[in-house]
Predict the structure.
Amino acid sequence: MLYYFIFAIVGLVSFSGAQTLINDSCESHVDKLSTCAGTISFSGDCYSSKIELRDTEYVKCTDVNFFWSYPLNNMTLVIETPFTQKRQRFTVSLETQPLQGAVSHVYRIIDDQETDVTTREPILTQDSDANYQVILKFQGPTRLSRYGVVIQYESTVKA
Ligand SMILES: *[C@@H]1O[C@H](CO)[C@@H](O)[C@H](O)[C@H]1NC(C)=O
Ligand SMILES: *[C@@H]1O[C@H](CO)[C@@H](O)[C@H](O)[C@H]1NC(C)=O
């Protein structure tokens, strides 16, 4: 009898552990559309998701086109470019028009500090940080309102 009881406790604990995991899970996917284009999507409950381009083919691209599928909540994009590996300073120019209606704010993150860099200008430009990255956080809606949003940027080396 006692054994059954212990078994039940262990089962319950691991079950609730699994539930927590499921709730916290935020699995990211980047599906390649062409050399420098892809679809970003997430499975699980994502309140704050992150995509690091470091280990992807997209670091070889200067012109990148992403489709963020079913944008919800916050998505942080850690941009690296062909200039990152060469340790050359660069500028990212992001198209803001395609974000409208789905992304209410864009934040720049440097040293874990975020700054609201939302602009009504057609292009948002951001210079690389000390790690030769540009980290941008996109704030999407809290309820699904668009099935997707285009995140398109170009990177140019700084003279
Ligand atoms: C999942 O986590 C969020 C935030 O931590 C919480 O608000 C929500 O109620 C949780 N959902 C379930 C089904 O436990
Ligand atoms: C998204 O980030 C903004 C700015 O940091 C914050 O105010 C907001 O609560 C975040 N949204 C979610 C769903 O975490």
